[in-house]
Amino acid sequence: MQHDRDGHRDDIDSLADTWRADGLNETIIAMLELGKRAGRLNNLVQQAVRAELTDLGLTYAEFEVLTVLRRAGSPYRLRPTDLTRSAFLTSGGTSNVLQRLEKAGHVERGADEGDGRGRWVRLTDQGLRLTEEALVASGTAHHDVLRTVPTERLRAAADALRDVLNPITPRR
Q: What are phi and psi of 68, to 5 degrees?
């Protein structure tokens, strides 16, 4: 049973044909197709973004940390635990990334005057400029990968993925 809407098949459709022949039910097949296509899209976008970031001397994890700090708004400062949670990194991963970013002059760390045990991380002016460049580069990479897809299809896919993710994503 072919489910592509416009007669265009991809190699995941061929996998789905095999799964059908193996007797998998349509719900499971739809789940598998969604996971395969979402994974492929993520890989294509990540590959393009990573190439752009490499030109700026950044890893993807460093980019994530910088953008989380930027989203915090002026003064672009967060506690390391909040940064770790928002960047979807481990505390050890965050620590390693922060060491590299601090050494490069993109962030600074300090003690919280209001709480002797508390710490904070802040974007430097140099780090903010680099973050802005990296965001433009990320946008360029996304555009390069997705430019042939009509805006209405992109919007529909983004909305459909939200509908899929909302019931399965834990709330904080």
A: -65, -45
Which pLDDT does position 170 carry in this prediction?
A: 82
- 134 closest CA partner among 154, 96, 106: 106
First-to-last C-alpha distance (Å) of the chain: 40
Name residue, tokens 């390391």.
Answer: 80
Over the Cα atoms of the chain, what is R_g?
20
DSSP secondary structure letter of residue 145: H
Match 């989203």 to its residue by tokens: 71
Structure tokens at 136: 């433009």
Token representation of residue 158: 């983004």
Residues shown for the chain:
172
Type of residue found at 76: Y
- What b-and-e string marks burial along 109-144, b requiring 16 or more CB atoms within 10 Å of the CB? eeeeeeeeeeebbbbbeebbebbeebeebbeebbee
- Scanning the structure block, which residue is given the tokens 């993109």? 106
| Whether residue 68 has pLDDT greater than 60 | yes
Q: Residue 46 corresponds to which tokens in the numbers above?
A: 């990540």
pTM for this model (two decimals): 0.82
pLDDT digits (tens, 9 = 90+) for 32-50: 999 999 999 999 999 999 9
pLDDT at 2 over 60: no
107-112/115-123 β-pairing: antiparallel
